């Protein structure tokens, strides 16, 4: 398989799936991948017994409460929500909230390609719906700075610039990519503060603090004519966050009691995991112990560059042990500088040292904070592992801490880097060895807590692969949110909420939009299928010249192969192929069917059948027929 390349630039993506099956195939098994194939009837949870499959919670299922529609929602304008991405995969999160015909876009993220998408750089949400309704879009709201929420912004903005709202850090992280596309001056970035409520287009939008693996993430409350629609954003309920900024459950509870929460859209990433995600601050304690136990050795710690709180804890543990801190990797350097400027990261000047000066320090004084936690081939850590890093070389007895969990699909690449590190006699500490990482997403206990606090009338799972969202439904059921009150949606689905309740409201294009170099959307599933065949089986070409007037093949067809297995019989097979292709073409010509398409078809068939019968292989067969 061609999964040599880890997904690149993974700083933004933040999926945690500790129990995900190993290997690149994990993502494929997660339910309907192709949107067209999604079976809507399977998605409604009404008849779900809860007894088959994994139980979300040991708690007894509460009796369903039949809730009357809120009286003030009768007659008011309906609200429509359209899901363009993130419901069926971890990545490319994008939704539209529509009130009175106006649209607010919530996040425009990217997804990193699966192993079955060779050559694809990025996957975007299908932006057709937004493009067709561009005149109705009033703004883009970013919940937080991860790339699965912000990375697609430049692709949207280049078609129609609209104002972008988010926390100061979120906007700064999002600007990196927009800047690369040279569009920062065309776009209005509007920073919003914790707890702020402001009119954006058709409704008031309130930004409620949540804890996550990047600082200053928001849940978003839309105050609509149909009541409050609360989007949890990516969140966990961390009671001891590194910056003391907790998930504002009090505000959500206040909204729940007055005016009540009509619809909760809730992060499903860790809905398969029982219990509670440990606090981010527990990682700091572990790091401190790990550092203290190895006082005379150099440390290299790798984590996501946007995980500012993790960087803070690495720096704190290092400095407490008498070390100095150096950064390695472009995005780490950039984000550390940015976070210090915004006052989100505290590392005293005297404790920072340039990576090129690290060799002048004693081993016990060194802590390098590096990118590359996902095994990306071009990243700082991968280059350290192969000895190709220009700025820093590993030595025997160094300690490398991988303070992150591989995103599903990246396990193989991370494993390979860990092997290379061991070959250098470096000690490697990762989340399988010690608690040097915790997730940024809520587990079942926290999900149930949020459901309890917000007491929503309706619920839709978001942000997850199909199995994550299906498990979210079970958590909801355990909290008594059952029947028509839960809707399991997928990419491209639209829903409507009105005085009568929550309903499906058709579909819009919701498939993958592939980016390959400067090409956006030109690659379809057909191209990817061809690439997979070429990668796995190779290609056999027959090049023949045909004289149409005389009805014969000129000379002998050439057979050209690439990436196709040879053995000692192959030469004989190729000789036979020349004969067979000639015979098939001449038969076609003598029967009078000499159009180009038909000649191609018979040549392909003759060659394909011969190769298939003799080798049991299915390379791509390409006839090239030149007519004279
Ligand atoms: Zn996130
Ligand atoms: Zn996310």
Which molecules are bound besides the chains? zinc ion
Say how many strands there are: 25
**Radius of gyration, rounded?**
28 Å
General shape: globular
Residues in helix, %: 25-40%
Structural class: alpha/beta
Strand line-up of the largest beta sheet: 7-6-5-3-2-1-19-20
Largest sheet geometry:
8 strands, mixed
Helix tally equals 16
Distance between the termini: 41 Å
Structure, described:
The protein has 628 residues and is an alpha/beta fold. The chain is built from 16 helices and 25 strands. The strands form five sheets. The protein has an eight-stranded mixed beta sheet. It has a six-stranded mixed beta sheet with strand order 8-9-10-11-12-18. A hairpin with a 2-residue loop joins strand 2 (94-99) and strand 3. Helix 7 (281-292) runs parallel beside helix 8, helix 12 crosses helix 13 and helix 15 (570-590) runs antiparallel to helix 16 (596-615). The two termini are 41 Å apart. One zinc ion binds at residues 14, 144, 146, 212, 234.
